[in-house]
Structure formats: structure tokens, C-alpha cells
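Notes from hallway chat w/ T.B., transcribed later so I don't forget. T.B. wanted the structure written out for a chain they're using in a teaching module, and asked if we could keep both sequence and C-alpha cells in one place. Agreed to drop them here.
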Amino acid sequence: GGGGGRGGYGGNRSFGDGGGRGRGGADSRTKNFGANAPKGGRGADAWRNKRGGRGRPRPSFSDASGSDQMARRRSGKAARAAKRRETAEANKAVAVEILEIPPVGMDMDRLCEDLATTQAEVIKVLFMKGIAVQMGQVLDKETVIAVAEAQGVEWIDEQEKGIEDAARKTTSFYEDEDDHDLGDRPPVVTIMGHVDHGKTSLLDYIRKSKVAAGEAGGITQAIGAYQVSTYVNDEERNITFLDTPGHEAFSAMRARGARVTDIAIVVVAADDGVRPQTKEAVSHARAAGVPLIIAVNKMDKDAANPDRVRDELAALEVVCEEWGGDVPFIPVSAKTGMGIETLLETVALTAEVEELVANPESNARGTVVEAYLDKQRGAMATLLVQNGTLRMGDAVLVGSNWGKVRAIQDAYGNKLEEAGPSTPVQIMGLGGVPMAGEEFDVMDSETEAKDIAAERASKERINTIEGNTVSLSNLAAAKDDDDGVQTINLIVKTDVSGSVEAVKAALGALPQDRVLLRFLHTAAGEVTESDIDLAAASEGIILAFNTTISEKVNDRAKGARVELRSYDVIYGLVDEVRAAMEGKLSGVKDEVFVGKAECKAVFGGGNAKVAGSLVLEGQLTMGANLRVTRKKKEMYLGKVGSLRRIKDKVKKVEAGLECGVGADPEWGDWKPGDIIECFDLVDRVQTLESASDDLSKKVDEIKAAEEKAKAAAAAAAAAAAKDKVEDDEDGDSSLGGQGGGSRSKGKSRSRQKAGTRR
């Protein structure tokens, strides 16, 4: 088409309907790039059209003066800064009121989180105290205490909480919405007491089975959960029993049993009376706040003395009903069945008084009693359902583990489709082995359970290597010894997860000042080839407790020269580990006093001098060890090289006689007044306790020397400050004694200075 203006493009080159690109033809070259494209040329109308789209906005100007705008900006900036400070203050971390310090110390991250501080601040505090640490380091107990005191935070030893804290009930499994569907549930009864007092035998009689006959050493080393149907007053009742170990190493298991129980039965042998674990069981029951029933077992024995048991329990403030107390006291015999019916009736009556209820319609919640890893079936967990009903296919969440319930069976191996409140069951389907004592929940969906488990796993700090930390003072005391501080690497595999904590607690109770136990890996399940590889790489020892070892793993261990030990009783495990620890300690030499003498005169010349001495105590013996001290400072250490009485060589000189003493090697620095000590060295095999005591003494000596040096430095600083003050006072008094003459001189100096300035 044709065009006007500045000459148009030809017909085949025209853009749009118009012709040329002249000023008169505004529509000749319209560029349509979208809905917000300008409808005109490049003038002001085009920009105004762009205002509604993506075009450049026109600046808006305020009517206020420049000073007003500046004040407004300043006030807005101050308000934003104040808001940021307020937000930071609201989100500021708050230190704990009381810091609980574990016996093995704390890592830097956890300490900073509890104290609401930074690692740089902790490093600075310790540096000012002369302790150099690095970021992320594990601090020993003494160092953590120093940081807490510097930050002004009160602290408490975690061990001082005692066993009552572990048994205290901390979780309520019932929600407000459960009140509408509550129903009666069977009681959960925990049987506790000292080892070999007949707890399992008593439960065997009730269950009409023989559990105790199959236990290693005749002692229980894991929690057993059973539900028993019995008749009380011609009415069938279900009672759930938890059988806990009585050995001292299984304190955590007993505390866990008390925490989930409704009624506690403490079994006391009539022929043995109250023992340490009996006292602990009573403390657990009191801490859990549950009713207590005393069952005096072994009444069929001739040495049975129930009155003695009453007296000893009364000393623990456990008074039986016959003496005006509130604790049922029932004599029983697990062998003959005496008093069993009375015991069950008492349990049923106590349960009625407690009014035990639960909501069977809600999602199941409860506690993991035990867990282990089966080679064929995977992770197996014994659960105690405490509220709701557990069903096949439920999505179960336990800590950072989750899974879909694929099988449910009771303590007798019977398969179940569901399990109601107060029912102990074993399930299969979890993705990992949970820790005994963890609480489980049934989630509404698998996705929810999986997401929560993943979130918990990400928050957990995974410690692949655990063990006691070395304190700085112990390292300082042991640095000059031949042994130093040594380490034994351990890999512990047990039958159930509850036994893991028992084994670690039993081994952790051994003194570890000289030889540390380092747990490379602890888990429930069989010993695998990967455990052998880990032990071979770290020169570790594998301890298998109540778990099986295949021939293939045994051959692998022999080929890799890995020490693999298997135990079925915890006594043997602890004893052999103690022997291994003591085997790393070298023998020590103890000094045995032989005699003491005083140098009266010195004879001879050069290094061949002889000390003419008077024997004060014991005797001096030829060839014995010799120590010479002068003013309580050791000057020489060697042996008696020569011993003469008048002019004759003798082998020994008794107390009260004079003699000449020569040293071997020769020593010529004898002086009258030197004290000569004669002694023998006797080899002694160290135990863990004696090595710990020796190290403690050295630590005390080092600390005493440091305190003495600090006191001397403080005294020197105080004396220097005092001298400086006295010097200042002397200078002031000399100036004051010059009197009026000094004033006139001062005036003349001021005139001189004034003239100089002019």
C-alpha cells in the first residue's frame, strides 16, 4: 500500500493496515506484543496506556517539605529497628534454670543449646581459664561445670536424680475425647524383687508353665509380658503380668516396668529377707505412685521367717495391714501354691478400687516393653497397649521408626487380629528396632507416620561411637606413666534392646580412669559379618549376650583374628571384661621400708666419698635401694654400694649403730645432716580400683600444686600493690614537709611558665 509522510514501505513490506511510517499515519507500524502493548506511538499517550500494564510507573511526589520527609523517614527507620529488636528479643534463646550434667560430660552443641550461648563464647570462657578446646568437642564433666558457673547457671549431677526419676510416670495415654467411650480394662501388674527370690517361679505357678527352667543361670535377664485368665470369686478375670529382672544390672528394666504398671507386687523371700533390689523395687513403686502388694515367697522352707520380713519392711516405711498400715502382706509359696488365690483376689480387689478404664475405640497408644531383630522376620517388638485397640494393618510410629503391622501374636504364640487395652502383644512390621521404653502411637495414615518418623530421624543426633570421655586432669596425671590412658573397643550384640542398656550400664560401672571402654556399636540381634569387619578394622572385641552366632560368622571371626565372646549370664560378661581391662595395666612397684639413717660426717674425696652415718630405724642392707633427702628434697636415688662397720665390710647394720655408707653409682655430694632411706621394691598387680585410686592421688597432687602456685602469685601481687601504696604515701609526706617554701617556689615556677608562654 501507499503511504504518506516520510515515504512508505512497499506493499509486501507493510506492517499492519497502513502504508508508510509518517507522522500523519499513527497506525502505519503498530507493534502488538501482547494485551498490554501500547495502542499508540511513542508519545505520552503510549506511556499512559502502559501504566495499566507492565510499563514504567510515573513517580509520585509528596506535598511535604524536605525536612518533614526526612523526619518521616527517620521515624520509620527507627520503628523498623525497634520492631526487629522486639522480634529478636521474643525469639531469643533462654538458658535452662538448672543444667543436668551427665557423668560422661556433654558435647559442645548440646551445652550451647542448654546455656543459650555460642560455641565461641564457651571457647573464650575456657581459654580464660587456661583450657584450650575446639568447636564440636565433647567436654568432660569438670569442664562443663566450669562453663555453667561462668555463665551463672545452676547445675546438678544427672546421677543425683536417682532411680525414682526413671520410674516416675510421665505420659498420660488418655485424651479428653476418650471420656465418652471409656470401659473397664485388665490391670497391669509388675512383679519386682531381688534376684533369686522366686518372682518367675511365682508367675510360672499362676500361668501353669515353666519359664524359669529355661532361663540361663535361673535368673531373669529380660522383661516378660503375659496375660493370664484366672477366676476370682467364680468370676473370670484377665490380669496382665510383667516379670522384671532382679539382678542389679537391670535397674533400668525394673524402672520401666514400674512406669507402665497399675499395681506393683514386690516378692521377698521369707528365708532371705529384704535385699538391695527389694529396696530399689519399693522405691520404684513409690515413684510411680502405684499400689504396693508384698508377696512373701518360699514359705514352704524351714528357714522361713515372715516376721523378719515385716520388721525389715517397716524400716522402709512399708507397714503391713496387720500392723495398722495400708500395704497387703501375703505369705505365698511358688512351689506348693500356698496363698496364690489370696494374692490374685487382692490384685482384683485393688484393681476395682483403682477403677482402671480405657477407650477401646481410639487409636492404640502404649509402650515398647522389649524389641529385638529376628534374622527371618525382621524387627520384632513387644508392645503393651495402654489405650485404644491395635489392629492388623495399622500404621505404628515408635520414635524415629514406623511400620505397618503385619502380624500380631500374644505371649503364647497365638495369632491375633486385634489387641485391646492392657494387652501385651508382639508385632512384626516395623522398619527398625525401637528402644525399650519408647512410646508408640497408631497414626491415621502411613504417610503421616512416615513423615513424622523422618522428621524425628533428622533431628536426632546420631552417635555411632559412645564411651567415657577423658578428663583433662586425668590426662595431665597420666601423661608421665608408661600405661597412660588406654582404650578397649567393644561391639555389643544382645537378644533384646533392653539388654543393651543393661550390659552398657554394668560395664559403665567399672572404674575407667586408666582403661576406657569405647562402644563402637550396640544393637539387638545376631552377630553379623559386618560386625566382624568393624571389629577387625578397629581392633575391637565383640560381646554377644544371649544371641546366636552362626558357623559362618565364627569362621569369619577366626579368619580375621577377631575376639568373639558369647555369654548367657551377665556376671561372666562383666568379669571377663574387667579381666581384659586389668590385663592392660602394667604391674607397679611398691616401696617396702627397710631402714633409715642420718649422715654425721663425710670421708674420702671425689665421687668416692663415704657418709659416716648413724642408723635411726630398721637396718641398712647391702644392695638395697637408697634414697638421700636434704631438707625434704630428694638429692640422690640409687643403691647401697658399700657398707662398712669400723673397717670391716658387712651386709647389714642394725639400728643404733654407726657405719660408713657408699652409693652405687658413686656420688660425692654427701653433706652432714642428709637423711638416708633404705627400701626394697615389691611388684604388685594393679586392679581397676587401685589404678583409679593412684590416679586420683596424682590428680589431687597436681591440683594442690596449682592452688599453691596461684596462692603464691596472689600473695606476690598483693605485696607488690602494698609496696606501691607505701611508696606513694612516702612521696606525698615528703612533699607536704616542705611547707610554705614550696608554695613560693611553685608561684615562681608558674610565673616562669607564664612568661614562657607569653
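Follow-up for T.B.: The chain has a mean pLDDT of 75. Might be a good example for the class.
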